[in-house]
């Protein structure tokens, strides 16, 4: 029997159940992964609450790292004993072990621990596509990044520094501001004390920024548009405060012919070749020391409800993981 987290209905953290299941043998294109660590991300909250739908009863978790214990037919790029990591569908990372598609797995370098991998795959690959593909940063730009002290945010701080990009980051406390700055964020804005639109205009001399990366959603969307320079791009990649309400396209025209995109990691990694390239760049940044993954919270898998409460109440910083 294997311990996993299941939900019978959507709702508060208490809907998550710690249960025993029997795992089947891996089928064609599948492998059995014994998980050493599981990632904890805000997208898990979206699935738990029903903001992002799934069939019920259901599973949670999109990121993990471990060792392959069995391989089904038609799997060639990994084998039994390989160290692997992943970020993506299908849901089900909250588990001691799982049978899953092999095509979402990448081999994990020996220099990167299982815990580090579980803490960085989804968040690190997110920063990779945001900075290297959605709006490709060349160096020298000044950008706005919301939630700069979160798991994605701290990786973004370091990656921006490595690229020679001036990052303006919003945070919710002075402690989080210090943490973001320690990781490479040049300017921090405490949104509980300052108006982030006014501060961005001050920092940029009224010009605005060419790109805003916004995972907050409802509470920051319009303000983020106001921070953009003409022809700037709004990258809305999350909805921590709730989904962005409907708005008129003229809002973009009146602010200078702005662009808006709502990207998803799973579209960017849909092609195996793209996933390999993205993971290789992320691993290279970590192995070089340019990016350090801060695991500031560790929870036992059975304590996942408390982990979600801490995540939703903005008590966490950096990355969080679950230990099976």
From TrEMBL:
Domain Enoyl reductase (ER): 11-322
GO cellular component, one term: cytosol
Keyword Oxidoreductase: yes
Alphabetic keyword roster: NADP, Oxidoreductase
InterPro entries noted in UniProt: ADH-like_C, ADH-like_N, ER, GroES-like_sf, NAD(P)-bd_dom_sf, QOR-like, Quin_OxRdtase/zeta-crystal_CS
CDD domains: QOR2
Keyword Oxidoreductase (UniProt): yes
Entry-linked Pfam families: ADH_N (PF08240), ADH_zinc_N (PF00107)
Gene Ontology terms, MF aspect: mRNA 3'-UTR AU-rich region binding; NADPH binding; quinone reductase (NADPH) activity; zinc ion binding
Record-linked NCBIfam families: PRK10754.1
Protein name as annotated: NADPH2:quinone reductase
Organism: Herminiimonas fonticola
């Amino acid at each position: 029997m294997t311990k996993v987290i299941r939900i019978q209905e959507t709702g508060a953290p208490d809907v998550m159940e710690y249960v025993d299941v029997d795992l089947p043998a891996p089928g064609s294109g599948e492998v059995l992964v014994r998980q050493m660590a599981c990632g904890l991300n805000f997208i898990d909250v979206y699935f738990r609450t029903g903001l992002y739908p799934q069939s019920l009863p259901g599973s949670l978790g999109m990121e993990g790292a471990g060792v392959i214990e069995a391989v089904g037919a038609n799997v060639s790029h990994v084998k039994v004993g390989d160290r692997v990591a992943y970020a993506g569908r299908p849901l089900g990372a909250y588990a001691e072990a799982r049978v899953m598609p092999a095509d979402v797995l990448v081999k994990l370098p020996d220099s990167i621990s299982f815990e580090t991998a579980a803490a960085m795959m989804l968040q690190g690959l997110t920063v990779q596509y945001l900075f290297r593909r959605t709006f490709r940063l060349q160096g020298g730009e000044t950008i706005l990044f919301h939630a700069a002290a979160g798991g994605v945010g701290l990786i973004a701080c370091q990656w921006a520094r490595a690229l020679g990009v001036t990052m303006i980051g919003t945070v919710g406390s002075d402690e989080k501001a210090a943490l973001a700055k320690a990781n490479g964020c040049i300017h921090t804005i405490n949104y509980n004390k300052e108006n982030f639109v006014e501060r961005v205009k001050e920092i940029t001399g009224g010009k605005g920024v060419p790109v805003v990366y916004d995972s907050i959603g409802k509470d920051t969307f319009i303000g983020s548009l106001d921070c953009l320079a003409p022809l700037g791009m709004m990258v809305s990649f999350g909805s921590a405060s709730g989904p962005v309400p409907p708005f008129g396209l003229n809002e973009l025209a009146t602010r200078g012919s702005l662009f808006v995109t709502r990207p998803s990691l799973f579209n960017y990694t849909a092609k195996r070749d793209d996933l390999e390239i993205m993971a290789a760049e992320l691993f290279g940044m970590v192995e070089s020391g340019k990016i350090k993954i801060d695991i500031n919270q560790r929870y036992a898998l059975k304590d996942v409800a408390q982990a979600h409460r801490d995540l939703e109440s903005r008590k966490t910083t950096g990355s969080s993981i679950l230990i099976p």
